[in-house]
Amino acid sequence: MSPHLKDRPVAMVRAPSGIAGGELFFQKHAERTAMPGLTAHSRDLWPKHPPLLTVDTVDALLSAAQMNVVELHTWNSTVSKLDSPDRVIFDLDPGDGGKWKHIQEAALLLRVLLSELGLEAWLKTSGGKGLHVVVPLSSRLSYDAVKSFSQYFVRYLTKTIPERFSAVSGASNRVGKVYVDYLRNGMGQTTAAAFSARARPGMEVSMEQLTELKSGAQWNVQTAREYLSFQSHDPWGDYWSRAQPLAAAIKRLR
What pTM was estimated for this model as a whole? Predict the structure, then answer.
C-alpha cells in the first residue's frame, strides 16, 4: 500500500471499538489524537483548512494501524502539486439487481472508450460491490479541468451506451445499470487506496484484479494476504511510469 499513500493527503477511517460496534469516524487533520510518524503539513499548503496529513513511511502506516485506522483514502494529487491531480478516477456502482458480470463488462467497456482517447487505465475493486477505474495523469491541469473532463466523459459514456450506464445517482436511476460517479475528482475528494481494508463486516480489501473475480467484495484481509504472499508481479508496476497528458483526450472527446 505504501506507494499509493506516499505524499498524498489522506482521510482515515478509525474504529477505536472495532468495526462491529462503537463509533467509526473520519480523520483528515492532525487535531485529533496524534499518530507518531505521520506528517502534518503546514496550514499554508491548503489555506483556511487545518493541516493535511500524509502517511509517507511503513512506520507511519504501522502507527496508523496501532491507532485503529482501518481505511485509508487518498487525494488525487500529491502535496508537491496539491492543486494539480495526477490521476482521474471513475467509481462504478451497480444498481439493485445488477449482476457481477454486468459490472465487469461495464468496466471493460469504459476502459475501451478511454483507450480510444489514448488513455490507459487500471482497475481495482472498491472493497465493496463496485469497481474503481484509475487513469494516471501528468499533473499539468487543475482540479476543475480534470473534473470537467471526467464529467463530460461520463455524460458521453451514458449517451453512447445508455442501456448499460447511468450518470445520475439514486436507486431508481440505475436499475439494471451501472452508475459512474465522477465526483471523486474534485479538490479535496478522496478514494479508498489500493490494498486498503474497509471498515465493514468481512473487512474487504481494495484489490487490482478483474477477470477471475466473483464479486467486488471477494478479497478480504484474510484472502488478500494469502493471495499477495504468492505474487511476484506487482499489477501496479507500470502505473507509476504512465504520466499521461489529458489535453489530447479532451480534444478528441469534444
Answer: 0.92
